[in-house]
Amino acid sequence: MSDVKERIEIKGCKTQARASFRGQVLAESDRALVLHEKGYPPRIYFPKSDTRMPLAQISAHKTHCPYKGDAAYWSFSIDGETLENVAWGYPEPLPNVAAIADHISFADPVAVES
Fold first, then answer.
1. Is the pTM of this model over 0.70?
2. What are the beta bridge partners of residue 17?
3. Alpha-carbon separation of residue 82 from 19, 60, 71, 102 (angstroms)
4. d(CA 88, CA 109)
5. Residue 2 pLDDT > 90, yes or no?
């Protein structure tokens, strides 16, 4: 899409970012990215290498964004509780947002802070 650069901006997070659920850290990174998309709140994307992926299971759920591409979803199991489709990422993002490849973002109820 021609207006991706006007709609989406990706920057490095200026501070260490953390995603947690009930005190359990799911991701922590000083290499996280902040994606600003027009009309949406900023989202922090964590490198998968800084995420506790052994707690994650890939989901069958998928969505498509015309600006970012096809999204995959993960459910995380923490202390016997499964948070369905609580994280997503773009394994093969569109070229203008290639920086978010190998990164994931979290939704509520996971607390994300930077």
1. yes
2. 29
3. 16, 15, 20, 22
4. 14
5. no
Q: Which tokens is 78 given?
A: 């923490």
Q: Is the peptide bond before 41 cis (omega within 30 degrees of 0)?
A: no
Q: Which domains does the chain have, with CATH numbers?
A: 4-113 (2.170.150.40)
The residues that bridge with 85 in the sheet, in sequence order, are none
Alpha-carbon span 82 to 25, nearest angstrom = 15
Task: List pLDDT tens digits, range 67-90.
Answer: 999 999 999 999 899 999 999 999
Q: Which residues pair with 20 in a beta bridge?
A: 25, 111
Taking the CA of residue 76 as centre, how many other CA atoms within 13 Å lie in the half-sphere pointing to its CB? Answer: 25
